[in-house]
């Protein structure tokens, strides 16, 4: 019984409509900020891959094909799985990722969330974003599949 007590306030917050006020717009803006940061992080990674290609006689240059996901996946995984349960863009817009079961979001969940977003977005040509218009908690497909929700922190 004492194991569920710390998660009661979070569960009650997840039931409050104000937890989802403006989440769609804030989430889109956070996405733009986060992927701008990822693009900036790709600049030094570009040079590292270039040097790696020279050292490996050109083999390392094949990493250019997956450079963006190679940078984005750890960025999203470790920031969502961190203590804030939010990427820097999400923190900027006062958002955090919560699990519906009350547990903390870990690095694996952050990675799964990111991978499912990109896979579902690719397979549905980006129409997964429209799903947030019809779900009561403004969840996207990866949120529904993983049992997570994005809420306002305050």
From TrEMBL:
Its main location: membrane. Pfam families: RDD. Residues 25-146 form the RDD domain. It is found in: Cell membrane. The chain crosses the membrane at residues 32-55, 61-86, 107-134. It comes from the Bacteria. Keywords: Cell membrane, Membrane, Transmembrane, Transmembrane helix. It is a multi-pass membrane protein. GO terms for cellular component: plasma membrane. This is Membrane protein. It comes from Aureimonas ureilytica.
